[in-house]
Design a protein that fits this description.
Number of helices of chain A: 15
Order of helices and strands of chain A: HHHHHHHHHHHHHHH
Distance between the termini of chain B: 65 Å
Radius of gyration of chain A: 32 Å
Number of helices of chain B: 14
Radius of gyration of chain B: 34 Å
Number of strands of chain B: 0
Shape of chain B: elongated
Distance between the termini of chain A: 82 Å
Largest sheet of chain A: none
Helix content of chain B: over 70%
Number of strands of chain A: 0
Helix content of chain A: over 70%
Strand content of chain B: under 5%
Oligomer: heterodimer
CATH class of one domain in chain B: Mainly Alpha
Strand content of chain A: under 5%
Order of helices and strands of chain B: HHHHHHHHHHHHHH
Structural class of chain B: mainly alpha
Largest interface: A-B, 33 and 35 residues
Structural class of chain A: mainly alpha
Chain lengths: 310, 293
């Protein structure tokens, strides 16, 4: 009797402890457009009226409430939130929102064209988030999969490729950019017209031929006043340096030649050193800016043509 | 045995019924309101955890004003969270507003935290008068404060009043019970000001030596060499040219200007030294505020 009571009690405990496992799946409410829709529409009206900060809170509230009862505007709210983050220049957060929206749309079997447009936005945000940083977009797992997985549409794969090419050019990885471009052309020959391809190829050729000014050499050259700036193609600064620094060097040289060492060491030596230091620094900076400007000029046709992919 | 099977079957049936009820989704009418306290608090907490402090602040305020008379844990937690937000934002007017509106409905723990943050802000402003007014204002609640906070208030008041003697005695005592005061005690025990007048006198006699007195030997050497060179240059070129060239006069003038600048520099150097000593003391106290919050 005691044994049967024991078995009975154990079974009882097992039965009721398994209850949450049975309930787990069904506990989530089915999506219903009425759940918290008032918050969502209020957020949209705030957004449309330009009250972005308030709209952001309300959208977050709507998204937060989804864990209590799921409405049907979750992906819409995430997209609107991404738009708000974009306005604030917070592209990483915008990309995260779009990523969540994509997952929700996939779960809800939304239209493929809509999901594709979200993916394009996702790539855009990831590209903007990487701008101005040293981050290589090619290392981003999302971009990598957009580029390489054949499940994605050509539109997305082309966009991912163009984003990586632009990012590589910005980061000075010209060879990698060209390699990615070649792969893109092989995979999607219809993406660019013959004329566009020719322009891109010509620009890559120019970029490869372009020899950047050597910053160290610019520095060394500026021991001769203005020569460093002249090398870096900053003619105005070159003339200034030649006149000012040249005059000081001439006066100092005269003091040394006439053995007027007191005047040289007390009055001229210190300014001379400072002028020279400034001159060397400016020449190096000019060389760097020249390289940057020239690279931007040469890569502009590539970026423009890439954006106009078919 | 039959009985047992019968009981088991009936229990299984009861369980199935119970599980079915358990799984039944709630109707839209039963969906929780986003503005009920627990939900509002959870939303505010999520914003706070994600680092959206201003937005979390708005939600906590909404919660506080939706339940003005309530002494619930949500309200106390919200007050504490708001205090934390204002501390992170270094929002002086925020903490003042919070105290003005909710101090009396806060529990002792939250009261202490509010006062802690306000004390830190006033201390950082280095305003001895405001700090003294603040401590007088919270005197009646002081018994309920933790000894650590009370000690920190005392130490802060002594620092702001420049009562280094008192601070030395206090930190020597505190360091035995709280290791956070170790560095402050070290600084207060070695606190010795330099006399600006003495630095000026030294530099008058030997150019640059005032800076040496204030602990900067390198500055002394460079000042001495610079002024010495101009003096030497003046004398040498003067003798060489029989004082008929422009050189000794230019060198002499530059040397004299440097000498006067050096006198002023030595005087300022002593002042800067003293200010740095005091600043170190204050910064160390600020670190204790951070550690003990």
């Amino acid at each position: 009797m005691k044994k049967s009571i024991k078995i009975f009690l154990i079974q009882l405990i097992l039965l009721f402890s398994s209850l949450p496992f049975f309930a787990q799946e069904k506990d989530i409410l089915p999506r219903n457009p009425n759940y918290y829709s008032d918050i969502f529409f209020y957020a949209l009206s705030l957004y449309n009226d330009g009250a972005y900060e308030e709209a952001e809170v309300e959208l977050k509230r709507y998204l937060f409430m989804q864990k209590y009862a799921q409405g049907t505007y979750e992906s819409g709210a995430l997209c609107a939130l991404a738009g708000l983050y974009e306005k604030k220049g917070e592209y990483t957060l915008a990309a995260e929102c779009i990523q969540k929206a994509i997952v929700i749309c996939e779960q809800n079997d939304s239209k493929k064209s809509y999901i594709d447009s979200l993916r394009v936005s996702h790539i855009n945000y990831l590209e903007k988030a990487a701008e101005g940083t040293n981050e290589y977009l090619s290392n981003n797992l999302f971009i990598y999969s957009y580029m390489n997985l054949p499940d994605f549409s050509d539109k997305i794969r082309i966009r991912a490729h163009t984003a990586v090419i632009s990012n590589s050019i910005q980061n000075g990885r010209i060879e990698f950019a060209q390699k990615t471009y070649t792969t893109a052309v092989e995979l999607f020959p219809q993406a660019w017209t013959e004329q566009q391809r020719q322009e891109i190829d010509a620009s890559f050729e120019k970029l490869f031929k372009f020899k950047p000014k050597n910053q160290k050499l610019a520095g060394y050259l500026s021991f001769v006043p203005g020569l460093g700036q002249l090398y870096a193609a900053n003619y105005k600064d070159s003339l200034n340096a030649f006149l000012l620094n040249g005059s000081l060097i001439a006066v100092s040289a005269w003091s040394i030649v006439t053995l007027d060492l007191w005047t040289f060491s007390l009055l001229e030596f210190n300014p001379l050193i400072r002028f020279m230091q400034g001159n060397i620094y400016n020449a190096q900076k000019d060389a760097y800016q020249y390289n940057l400007k020239k690279q931007q000029e040469l890569s502009q046709p590539i970026c423009e043509n890439l954006q106009n992919a078919l | 045995m039959k009985k047992f099977i019968l009981i088991l079957v009936s229990l299984t049936a009861a369980f199935m019924l119970y599980a079915q009820n358990y799984n039944t989704p709630v109707s839209p009418k039963e969906v929780p309101s986003p503005y009920q306290p627990e939900v509002l608090k959870a939303f505010a907490d999520s914003l706070y955890e994600d680092g959206f402090l201003s937005q979390a602040e708005g939600e906590y305020k909404r919660l506080l004003f939706s339940q003005p008379q309530d002494d619930s844990s949500e309200k106390q937690d919200s007050l504490l969270a708001l205090t934390n937000i204002y501390k992170k934002q270094e929002n002086v007017s925020g903490i003042e507003w919070l105290k003005e509106n909710f101090y009396f409905s806060s529990n002792p723990f939250v009261k202490e935290k509010m006062n802690f943050v306000q004390a830190e802000f006033i201390f950082k402003s280095r305003n001895a008068e405001s700090f003294s007014l603040f401590t007088a204002d919270i005197e009646k609640d002081r018994q309920s404060f933790s000894p650590d906070f009370s000690n920190l208030l005392d130490a802060s008041a002594l620092i702001l009043d420049n009562d280094i003697k008192g601070l030395k005695a206090l930190t020597a005592e505190l360091v035995t019970i709280n290791p956070d005061y170790e560095k402050l005690n070290e600084l207060s025990q070695s606190y010795k000001l330099k006399k600006a007048g003495l630095a000026l006198f030294f530099s008058t006699v030997l150019p640059g030596s005032g800076k040496w007195y204030t602990g900067s030997f390198g500055a002394f050497i460079s000042s001495f060499v610079a002024i010495g060179s101009f003096v030497a240059g003046t004398v040498y070129t003067g003798i060489q040219t029989d004082w008929k060239s422009w050189q000794p006069y230019v060198f002499g003038t530059v040397g004299a200007v440097l000498y006067i600048a050096e006198l002023y520099g030595s005087y300022q150097s002593a002042k800067r030294y003293n200010a740095a000593l005091y600043r170190n003391l204050c910064e160390e106290a600020e670190k204790i505020y951070e550690k003990e919050y």
